[in-house]
């Protein structure tokens, strides 16, 4: 049987069923997403699945879906390989892998969904199952981070569902993304933007990110930042149409929200004392840039716009680089790293800052080409400032990783071969991908010109000089508490729910009559109930065929 699009989310579920029978299957979970690579390049046409719900369809219809599926497959596969080593001795590894596979299923489903209902099913499954990854470790901090994550995830689901219902009403009951390219109401747009924004993690909807990443297992942090945040961005892209009166008016506001968040997160991240927390704020900053790209597309609405390619490439670039850094942080906190390990660690960090011959430099020039002849050309100088800010933030993260080595025993040994090889693949990806992907390769020649090299290198050099002068930053406790207001809000909500005055109602029922009914039902033998069940099922199927 040939592979089809519906196999992509089904295969991880099959792995889960096999794992529950044979736990050793968890060592091979990294194979689950790989069939999707075959479909990316040799896949069939998009398919419709009306037997699921009206309008159900799966496939790829844009470069954004194409490259977001690519990054999802690569990250889930490599992170699964990494986790197979790190979770090997975990007494709760079956629980971890169950939530892992459910999250993977939802993530892969939403990326290939061509209708809102399929996207919503995948998004909900991914979001709720990811709670088990955030709160997997024992202790109060994972519980608090998991509680806040779940509270915001449920709030996001409610807002998305409300926006979905409003959007269906606005489009006259149409249930396809291709039919949703028509004007959208203000309330609908705000519900969808906020709901998906809670997953994307851009400012000011980022409260769960700085709490979740430090306590989540390393592999979970890699897919959370690399793949799951992009699901929120993809939801905004798919559900909210461009070039409508609402989005044109909303575009400048969203652009400046993304711009402010990109730099706010750098300042907040520089004040942190844990490497994974710094990397979490770096993700908040990078999501700000992706939000800016979407806002610019809303105001132009050109279906052939280079902003579409830019969004896809930026998502792929950030996913592999940030996942490599999170894995590196996990290795640095548990194993002794050699100088060549640290040299490799700097590669994805420098790529995020725009190092020449990497995905970061190519994305930077894609950004310049996309906006150079538009109203957004005035924002181009901010790219260099943003590169310097990103470099400063990631230098801070690397220094904290280096400091964490002091707490590791000299007998800890080098990283395991499987974990090291999976991390190596992602760390080298920023220089390998530009050689393999046409959209990146076309920018390489521009980045090698002298003027381009100067423009790409001076932010990194200046950030290095500043970091050398300011070798250590301190943070007052009072200000630090404000940065983590999410924990306070979550605990306060829990307190209010526990102490909410609920009237106690005593319901008295006469159960004698119900007991007689129960006894009469129990008199049926198990053999006798089987024909009744089959008959009722047959009648239901017959009624369905008569109606349709």
Question: How is this structure best described in words?
Answer:
Residues 475-483, 524-528 and 541-548 have low confidence and may be disordered. A two-stranded antiparallel ribbon has the order 1-2. It is globular, with a radius of gyration of 25 Å. The protein has 2 domains: 1-241, no CATH class; 257-322 and 332-471, no CATH class. It starts with 6 loop residues before the first helix and ends with a helix. It is 72% helix and 1% strand. The chain is built from 23 helices and 2 strands. Helix 16 packs across helix 19. It has 548 residues and is mainly α. The chain has helices at 7-21, 35-42, 63-86, 93-112, 116-129, 131-134, 140-170, 186-200, 209-215, 218-239, 245-270, 275-300, 306-332, 339-352, 359-371, 381-404, 417-436, 438-447, 450-469, 477-483, 485-498, 512-522, 526-547; strands at residues 47-48, 57-58.
Walk me through the topology.
Layout: H1 7-21, H2 35-42, E1 47-48, E2 57-58, H3 63-86, H4 93-112, H5 116-129, H6 131-134, H7 140-170, H8 186-200, H9 209-215, H10 218-239, H11 245-270, H12 275-300, H13 306-332, H14 339-352, H15 359-371, H16 381-404, H17 417-436, H18 438-447, H19 450-469, H20 477-483, H21 485-498, H22 512-522, H23 526-547
Antiparallel strand pairs: 1-2
Q: Spell out the helices and strands N to C.
A: HHEEHHHHHHHHHHHHHHHHHHHHH
Approximately how much helix is present in the residues? over 70%
User: What is the molecular shape?
Assistant: globular
Measured distance between first and last alpha carbons: 29 Å
Largest sheet: 2 strands, antiparallel
Total helix count?
23
Query: Rg, please?
Result: 25 Å
The neighbouring-strand order within the major sheet is 1-2
Unreliable residue runs = 475-483, 524-528, 541-548
What integer is the average pLDDT? 82
């Amino acid at each position: 049987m040939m592979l089809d699009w519906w196999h992509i989310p089904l295969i991880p579920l099959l792995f889960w069923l096999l794992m529950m029978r044979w736990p050793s299957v968890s060592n091979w979970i990294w194979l689950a997403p790989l069939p999707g690579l075959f479909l990316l390049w040799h896949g069939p046409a998009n398919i419709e699945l009306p037997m699921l719900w009206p309008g159900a369809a799966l496939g790829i219809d844009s470069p954004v879906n194409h490259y977001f599926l690519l990054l999802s497959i690569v990250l889930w596969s490599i992170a699964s390989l990494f986790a197979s080593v790190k979770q090997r001795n975990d007494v709760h590894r079956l629980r971890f892998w169950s939530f892992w596979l459910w999250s993977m299923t939802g993530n892969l489903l939403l990326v290939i969904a061509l209708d809102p209902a399929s996207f919503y099913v995948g998004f909900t499954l991914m979001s709720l199952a990811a709670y088990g990854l955030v709160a997997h470790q024992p202790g109060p901090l994972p519980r608090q981070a998991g509680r806040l994550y779940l509270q915001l995830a449920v709030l996001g689901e409610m807002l998305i569902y409300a926006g979905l219902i409003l959007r269906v009403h606005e489009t006259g009951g149409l249930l396809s993304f291709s039919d949703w390219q028509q004007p959208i109401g203000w309330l609908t747009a705000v519900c969808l933007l906020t709901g998906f924004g809670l997953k994307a993690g851009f400012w000011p909807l980022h409260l769960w990110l700085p709490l979740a990443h430090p306590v989540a297992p390393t592999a979970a942090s890699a897919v959370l930042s690399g793949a799951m945040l992009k699901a929120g961005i993809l939801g905004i892209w798919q559900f909210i149409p461009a070039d409508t009166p609402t989005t044109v008016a909303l575009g400048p506001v969203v652009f400046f929200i993304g711009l402010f968040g990109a730099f706010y997160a750098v300042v907040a991240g520089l004040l942190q004392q844990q490497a994974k927390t710094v990397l979490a704020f770096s993700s908040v900053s990078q999501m700000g840039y992706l939000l800016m790209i979407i806002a610019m597309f809303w105001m132009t609405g050109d279906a052939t716009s280079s902003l579409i390619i830019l969004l896809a490439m930026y998502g792929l670039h950030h996913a592999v680089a940030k996942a490599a850094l999170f894995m590196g942080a996990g290795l640095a906190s548990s194993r002794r790293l050699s100088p060549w390990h640290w040299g490799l660690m700097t590669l994805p960090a420098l790529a995020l800052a725009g190092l020449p011959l990497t995905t970061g430099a190519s994305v930077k020039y894609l950004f310049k080409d996309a906006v150079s002849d538009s109203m957004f050309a005035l924002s181009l100088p901010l790219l260099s400032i943003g590169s310097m800010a990103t470099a400063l933030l990631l230098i801070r993260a690397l220094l904290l990783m280096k400091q964490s080595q002091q707490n590791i025993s000299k007998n800890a040994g080098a990283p395991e071969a499987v974990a090291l090889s999976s991390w190596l693949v992602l760390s080298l990806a920023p220089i390998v991908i530009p050689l393999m992907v046409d959209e990146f390769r076309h920018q390489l020649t521009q980045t090698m010109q002298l003027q381009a090299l100067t423009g790409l290198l001076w932010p990194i050099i200046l950030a290095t000089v500043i970091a050398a002068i300011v070798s250590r930053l301190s943070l007052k406790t009072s200000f630090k508490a404000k940065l983590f207001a999410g924990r306070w809000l979550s605990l306060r909500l829990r307190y209010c729910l526990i102490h909410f005055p609920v009237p106690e109602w005593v319901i008295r029922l006469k159960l004698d009559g119900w007991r007689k009914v129960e006894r009469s039902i129990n008199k049926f033998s198990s053999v006798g109930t089987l024909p009744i069940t089959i008959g009722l099922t047959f009648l239901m199927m017959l009624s369905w065929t008569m109606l349709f």
